[in-house]
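Still learning folds. Look over my entry:

…
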Amino acid sequence: MYKIDVKNQVDAMERVLRAHDDPCRCQATVSVLRRWQFDDMLDDASREKAKMLVLEFESTVPATADTTTWSVAASSVALSEKPR
């Protein structure tokens, strides 16, 4: 089965988390990464990086609005570089 390389997206998510400018955006990003660490469609390196970021940032991101209903496709919102 073909694996998807989402390295660029995961790198963008890491920048969002390290900037820590918007707690809601960070929480949404961690929510997406939580799912991505177990997504069999992604390549091993992308899943491992997602896991590492979840472990690093999950406890530092404040709990805000419920983002558990986000789909993987909705991750583009978390990656958006434009202010909303």
User: Anything to note?
Assistant: The two ends are 37 Å apart (CA to CA).
